[in-house]
Amino acid sequence: MDVQGSGSRRPAVLVLRALGLGDLLAAVPALRALRRAWPAHELVLAAPARLRSAARFTGAVDRLLPTSAPGREVPTTLPWRGPPPEVAVDLHGNGPPSRLPLRALRPGRLLAFRHPGLPEPPGPPWDDQEHERSRWCRLLAWYGLDADPDDLRITAPGRPSPAPGAVLLHPGADAGARRWPARRFAEVGRRLARAGAEVLVTAGHGEGRLAHDVARQAGLPPEAVIGGEGDVPFTELAALVARARCLVAGDTGLAHLASALGTPSVVLFGPVSPRLWGPPAQGPHRALWRLRPGEDPFRPGDPHGSEPDVRLLRITVDEVLAAVAALPERPRDP
Predict the structure, then answer these.
(1) What is the pLDDT of residues 310-327, one digit of tens each?
(2) Which of 137, 128, 114 is nearest to 275 (CA)?
């Protein structure tokens, strides 16, 4: 997959989704709908370069246009070369920050939600209480495209897993509000290992210290930690998750990867409801969330806060272990 400007004589569909791994995987149903609608076009995804391999595994993207912006900010410009895209699609957000970089390229057609501050395009209204996968499919359906929110599965890499059948613990998240305490992850790991499970702790870039702390408290060896110095290469990470016994994680990109691969998972929610970002209800997953009467049923907390959300802290170690035990058994690694 190319990562630079066009080099293609085909007309292009340019999609802006310049976020993280979980955001990309939540957009897979919409990306596949665009692929079906314009099969002869080059489908270009504007996203961070680190997602290049993941984008290839969606089966919908031809080329990644690398973007750059601090944190989760929207890129102010897109490094597009060549003729304007025939179609531009805002799968990033709703408003000027994501719309204007696309409009600046003068696409032949722009697909986006309606926004009061922008006269065009006259798309559907935004719904703040809608699951992320459903939101983008509804957008495309308004424009006459057939999109299925449940079309989220991706094919696992052909490479073998280094630990087929292992239980994966992923204690990291990009905000403290979505990090269940390390000592609780460690207690889950310790008790699962005592029961005979092989337990590994996964870590993204900059999460090595946290992962090693969890492993140490759980009584696991240092080699039980996968990653930490940098992001684990996507094909290696996907092979590990695809053939795991299950994943235990917060509301993170790795939880979305488990959903995309059909790997059983226990996902812990705090500031944001699983009704907005949770795994598919029909899959082998358990979403844990402890909301109390009177709290906002969708976004009761700050997903970017620095401290663990109070709803996340209501989830106990025993509840997580019970959820793991309730997951369906998986066949042995093929």
Answers:
(1) 999 999 999 999 999 999
(2) 128
Contact 256, 250 (CB under 8 A): no
Q: What b/e readout covers 75-98, taking b as 16+ CB neighbours within 10 angstroms?
A: beebebeeeebbbbbbbbbbbeeb
Per DSSP, 177 falls in state: G
Strand order in the sheet with 265-268: 225-227, 199-203, 167-170, 246-250, 265-268, 285-288
Q: Are strands 12-16 and 42-48 parallel, antiparallel or unpaired?
A: parallel
Q: What is the pLDDT of residues 242-264, one digit of tens each?
A: 999 999 999 999 999 999 999 99
Q: Taking residues 228-239, what's their average pLDDT?
A: 92
Gap between the Cα atoms of 277 and 16, Å rounded: 19
DSSP line for 78-143: ----SSPPSEEEE-S-SSHHHHHHHHTT--SEEE---BTTB-----PPP-TTS-HHHHHHHHHHHT
- Cβ atoms within 10 Å of 324's Cβ, excluding its own: 22
Residue-level pLDDT at 331: 62
Domains of the chain: 12-142 (3.40.50.2000), 167-326 (3.40.50.2000)
pTM of the predicted structure, to 2 decimals: 0.94
| pLDDT(6) > 60 | no
